Amino acid sequence: MPTARLALTSLAVLAFLFTACSPTPPAQTPGGEQPTPGGEQPTPGGEQPTPGGETPGNETPAAQPTPGGQTGARLGIIQSRGSLICGVNTNLPGFGYPEEGTGRWLGFDADFCRVVATAVLGDPNAVEFRALSADDRGPALSTGEIDVLIRNTTWTLTRDTEWGLFGPTTFYDGQGVMVRTDSGVGQLTDFQGLNPTICVQSGTTTELTLPDQMRALGVEYTQDTRPDIDQTYAVYEAGDCDAVTSDVSQLIARRTLFSDPDAHTILPDIMSKEPLGPVVPFGDERWFNVVKWATWATMQAEELGIDSSNVAEMRDTSTDPVVRRLLGVEGGLGTKLGLSDDWAFNIISEVGNYEEIFNEHLGPGTPFNLERGLNALWTDGGLLYPPAWR
Amino acid sequence: VAPGRQVNRAHGAVPWWRDVRVLRVIGQIAIVAAIAGLVVVLAVIFLDNLAATRLRFTLDFLDQTSGMELAQTPIPYRSTDTFARAFTAGLVNTLLVSSIGIVLATALGVVVGVARLSQNWLANRISTGFVEIMRNTPLLVQLVLIAALMRELPGVAQAIELPGSIFVSSRGVYMPRPLAEPGLGPWLAITAIAVVLAIVLSRLSSRRAEAGKRTYAMGRIGLAAALLVPVAGWIMLTPYSFDVPAIVGFNFAGGIAVSTAFTALLFGLVIYTAAFIGEVVRGGIQAVRRGQVEAAYSIGLTPNQTLRLIVFPQALRVIVPPLTSQYLNLTKNSSLAVAVGFADLFAVGRTMANQTGQPLSVIVLVMGTYLLISLLTSLVMNLYNRRVQVLER
């Protein structure tokens, strides 16, 4: 009996505690001073949805929802958390993939995560990578679970309005089709009358572009949609699909994983524009600016001929005002972003400029051997054009 | 003062806070309040977090053009159709695989359940092994394994041809589709005439026989006509033809195509659920008292008759409620289709969620649809259960 009574009493106490607590909104702490480490909760619920001082009742979240808290909060949260949560691909060699043996995330996209982390925290290793499937990346952004998504994600109008804000394109790509070399198909129109089965990954723009293009060409085909990047290419390699479609860079990257890469050809047809770049959750322009300018800093450095080997020398000796502003010698541009003035210097010395990142993961020394093409600087006939550095 | 208190306690006039009846009521109120409080706290957190995202509930996207292509659609569907149409196609796929799966799993499950009780050593051991392996490994793992094994089948160009122009390849099974030809109408007409004639003749014959008149074997003539005319007509008019699948380009065209994804999912669901149904059936049979069987034997029924006429009808009463659960499980487990690339309700829903940017709405829609399917299945099974139970005396 005494134990039963004790149990009842404690339940009653608990009930009062719950009912007493429930109507009270979480305490308001302006400036994100009370951070809930993002690693512990799927949605950083601890971040305050309302600016400090206002009563929650007056807020109209439906009008302009702000995932991840009030404008400007995320930068502070990342700084106090001490790491950047960056969404990357699960397994895409060259872009985002875990290194065999160590599990360290490598690749072009992973390095841009390091670029952003270095800008904010001065440390390229202060990144918490989140491997996301194509289907999962949208919700991860709209819930504000990740700080930035750098996962070969195509910039589209729908995503720009439904998922988050797209930063500068880091890689200009196009959708292509890969077939077995012995299939005798040399271009897309050769598929006419051949009734092919084409593999495609769900949750991608390619999933929608393929039906459009095939309809325009009048090609009858069967689409085999798979939820997972590994499964998509496994089914194609096993011969259950006659072709596989994706961004050309991805086709090239995944081809290197095949047992016989030379037996597969990428058709010359480019079906679409695929500008790939970083995406940040809605509602935090200050954070958006940090991601944008950190990305541009790598391009600006290349344009100015600054790389990781000469950056220290350039800072100490250069008289070029643009170089001096970029590297934080003058201008105080970092402060305007809420960062230290040596933020861009850190990016280039710790990670490198755009050319170094590109060449390390995708360039001539790699299995992919990609040309710069559209991804050259504007001065070299490409599309990379960082805005004015002042 | 002290003696007074002792007297009170002795007479049972305990203060309310020590009265068990009062405490019981308070305790129940406390538990209800605790649960309600917890629900409120969770709801507030949920709504708070929801408001902080762009997720909201809307079904506006349903009548927009989907733009997505589906691999297998039992109903006509193209990427120019609406999301609603795509959703329906996924729903039909789910219903198709579930209903066929339920029928096959029941048949196999009954066999397995009976075999587990069999005196035959081999049948007994095989079914026991089957049940233990299927029941104790995850369905998802089984599905992935089945899909991987089916991928080892020969490709389209080297497809195995079975008698009757049935082709088996790693992409699916292709079989001829029967088609109606112009001769079908006349054939149906003459068959109908022959059958009517046979019925009239047989009536006439029996009436004449009753009246003691000669029948001129009219009944047999009628029967012969009813059999011979359709056969002769079938041969002469050829009211049918077959659309035989043939390789066109990279794939088979024509005929009926059953994709590997569908087969793998169906096969996985059937053998997995059959193991559980087998156990349900075994339990049901064992719940019939031994005396019933002995009584049946004593009046000379064979073991087969005993099972069919005595044991099964009584076992059904025990079997039907847990069987319903297995049917519901099979239907819900069909959502694992996404692992083998079959475009079921959930797989289509996933794609829709992504392409519309409305995961919340789509998930609610998908959940609601599964709920509806399950409730309807339960309803049907409960009605059936009631019918079975009425037999009790």
Number of beta-strand segments of chain A: 13
Which structural class do you get from the secondary structure elements of chain A? alpha/beta
Parts with pLDDT < 50 across at least 5 consecutive residues of chain B: none
Largest sheet of chain B: 4 strands, antiparallel
Provide the residue-averaged pLDDT of chain A: 83
Task: Calculate the mean pLDDT score of chain B and round it.
Answer: 87
3D structure, described in words:
- The complex is a heterodimer of chains A (390) and B (393).
- Chain A has 390 residues and is an alpha/beta fold.
- Chain A contains 14 helices and 13 strands.
- In chain A, β2 and β3 form a beta hairpin.
- In chain A, α3 packs across α9 and α9 packs across α13.
- The termini of chain B are far apart.
- Chains A and B meet through α1, α4, α5, α6 and β9 of A and α2 and α11 of B.
Search tags:
heterodimer; A: alpha/beta; 6-stranded mixed β-sheet; 13 strands; globular; B: 393 residues; alpha+beta; two-stranded antiparallel sheet; 12 helices
Task: Tell me the layout of helices and strands.
The complex is a heterodimer of chains A (390) and B (393).
Chain A: H1 2-21, H2 73-81, E1 84-89, E2 97-98, E3 105-106, H3 108-121, E4 127-132, H4 137-142, E5 148-149, H5 157-162, E6 165-166, E7 171-180, E8 197-201, H6 206-217, E9 222-226, H7 229-237, E10 243-247, H8 248-255, E11 264-266, E12 273-276, E13 279-280, H9 285-303, H10 311-317, H11 321-326, H12 333-337, H13 343-350, H14 354-361
Parallel strand pairs in A: 1-4, 1-5, 8-9, 8-10
Antiparallel strand pairs in A: 2-3, 6-13, 7-10, 7-11, 7-12
Helix pairs in contact in A: 3-9, 3-13, 9-13
Chain B: H1 2-10, H2 20-51, H3 83-116, H4 121-135, H5 139-150, E1 160-162, E2 166-169, E3 172-175, E4 177-180, H6 184-210, H7 218-237, E5 240-243, E6 246-248, E7 251-253, E8 256-259, H8 260-287, H9 290-298, H10 303-333, H11 345-356, H12 359-390
Antiparallel strand pairs in B: 1-2, 2-3, 3-8, 4-5, 6-7
